[in-house]
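Sanity check

After download, print the first record. It should look like this:
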Amino acid sequence: MSQELSFILTLRDLSVNLYLLKDDASIDEIKKWVIINHHLLPDEKYVIDFVNKLIEISEKNASMSEVDDFLVDVSHFWISYVTAAPLDFIYAGKRSSEHIIESVLSEYNIKCNGHIYTDDEVDLASLDHQGLSELNRPVLLCDNSGLSYFNKNHFIGYLNIERFDHSIINSEHITNTIKNYYSMAEIINENYQTLRKDQGENIRKVILGSSYAYYGVPDSLLCQSVNLSIASGDASYNHALIKHCHEKYGIKNYVVVLGYFELFHELSKGLNGYFYLAKQFFKINNIKYDYRARSNKLKNENIFTSYSNPMEYVLKEFIPHFMAAISLTSAQEKFTNSNSSTNKKIINNFSYSDTQTTNETQYFSKFYNTDGVAEFNKIIFSKMTDFIREINGNIFFVIQPFLPLFNERYHKEMRDETLTFFDAISDGESTFFIDLSSDMDFTPEDFFDAHHMNFQGAQKLYHKLKWLKL
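Expected structure tokens:
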């Protein structure tokens, strides 16, 4: 075992002891271990800060609350030290699970240093043949079957892709969205294949946007357009498709159907299952997708407990990706085996209530305080309009119709800023803004919930936009 690995593992175990005992003796043990291994510590601010905290607490009789605060300091130091150099991943599990591991790691340009397949008869001694003893930061990536290969003396921690600590990160929304709306990705892909086969001969426009475009512009009504919108579609999603569709198929005209939230929303930033559906669509069609990664800053908290697998905290940014990859594989198999249709379901029912309206508008109001998102999206929307101008095309931003009660209860600043921004970037030559948000021709019977149009409402919207020759 390398000196660095020994330092990391022992500091982890000493910190767990401090969590359990909360005594000065445990603090002294940590201090001794740090002094013995001082030659391994870089001259970095996080090291200096930690050493100062360690000296301070070791020179007094620490109270319980001071010990708790110090455990947070140790946690921050341990994470910083562990991640200061590349991690060495070893995979243990079924061969059928390996593609999930590889697909996620490839996004970070990471490869596993070794593989142990539980489908085979493997001697635990085979770990030594993986060159494990020479690694400084070995981490086990495994499925349920591979977890038995975890040994605290071999690895600094593990991540089981089939079972996570949901107190660290709750990705349930991702799995539920993929499970319930996987067909959306297949439908969008089917529409894209229609465009690919047409090669821009008959299809003159592409419909983009969020769920307002997905449900509000039904495929069955389109003659010269194709709908590539997705629920929660944002500026980066639309921008990627505008550039691709022009460069690949020469499409110059676009209709983007929006509401009030899109200016304040980034698909990649939240734990949003639609982001992973979008990513899969882009990946299988080799479409370049530039997006800002979700921030995964670790909280100021103690990561050492009696359970103590602190690497789950370190690797928390991987967890949503693994959950999404597993859910996508399962949903795709189910979709294929059930011979499900790639035709978009026509929704004829309507449901509209005071309570539903309040709940939905309050949900969207949370987007307003997301730092930097609106500023970023304004840049992306402006890049869209600049690109459209360069190719001598046209882009129409359409705010879909909403009912008076929805407009009344919506976050006023979000609504006003959205309408003002799209009006400002409209030049009447290549960029156009069509505000139908207060159109009085739409009634509650035109919506299947507080803000999405059913087929009756979509037909009305289609006729309102008939002059665009969709």
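If your output differs, re-run the checksum step. Summary of this record's structure: The chain has 17 helices and nine strands.
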